[in-house]
Amino acid sequence: MKRIVINIWAIVALAGFLALVVFIAVGWSHGFNSRTEPTNLEGSIAMELHDSSIPGRYEKMQNPVPTEHLNLLEAGMLYEQRCAACHGDSGDGTTKFDGMMYPRPTDLRSDDTQGMSDGELYYTINNGIRWSGMPAFGSRGDNDENLWKIVAYVRHLPKLTVSEQQVLTQSKTR
Ligand code: HEC
């Protein structure tokens, strides 16, 4: 029993020490500001923590809004109102905040994002991402139809044509 308690304390002390080393290394290298590009290690640790925080049941959750019947203009406007300021009209993540936020708003067309399941995308949009600028847009559990439409639109982003984007930008300014 005594040995188990000692082992637990050793693990806690080691974890604390490692956390301190990471904290000092990050702070030392770029002072916790948003300007400098983070190291690959820091980026991948943050991503890993985020991915593993999504409850398992979201992995297999299907989008109840059939993509083939998606009203692109309607979904696009929802995206424009809530997402485009940070992720850009085309989803590429370049906006006026480019290089001013860390974590950087993700390129939503990237393999990383498109590799997430529909449910994982929904969970992320619904609940946001802690310690980042990504807001939580949901308040209606797993049944917010507008959020599911945005998920379908995020799926469409890699295929968004220039003319579709023009129609959306014109509707926005009307
Ligand atoms: C205020 C800025 C901001 C707004 C508005 C915003 N996001 Fe984000 N979003 C971020 C940032 C910053 C990240 C990167 C977080 C990270 O790397 O941990 C992010 C990450 C994400 C991710 C995770 C991508 C991945 O590969 O892990 C998804 C999906 C996402 N956003 C979708 C959306 C959608 C859809 C909307 C609109 C409903 C939206 N975001 C609105 C800032 C924003």
Low-pLDDT stretches are none
Largest sheet: none
> What is the ordering of alpha helices and beta strands?
HHHHHHHH
Number of strands: 0
| Estimated helix fraction | 40-55%
Decide which structural class fits the backbone: mainly alpha
Strand content: under 5%
Q: CATH-wise, what's the superfamily of the domain at 59-173? A: Cytochrome c-like domain
Counting H and I runs of at least 4 residues, what is the number of helices? 8
Instruction: Compute the separation of the termini in Å.
Output: 72 Å
The CATH topology annotation of the domain at 59-173 reads as: Cytochrome Bc1 Complex, Chain D, domain 2
CATH top level of the domain at 59-173 is: Mainly Alpha
Notes on the structure:
This protein has 174 residues and is mainly α. The chain has a domain at 59-173: Cytochrome Bc1 Complex, Chain D, domain 2 (Orthogonal Bundle). The protein is built from eight helices and no strands. The relative contact order is 0.14. The mean pLDDT is 86. Heme C (HEC) is lined by residues 46, 50, 82-83, 85-87, 101, 103, 105-106, 108, 112-113, 121, 124-125, 129, 132-135, 137, 150, 154.
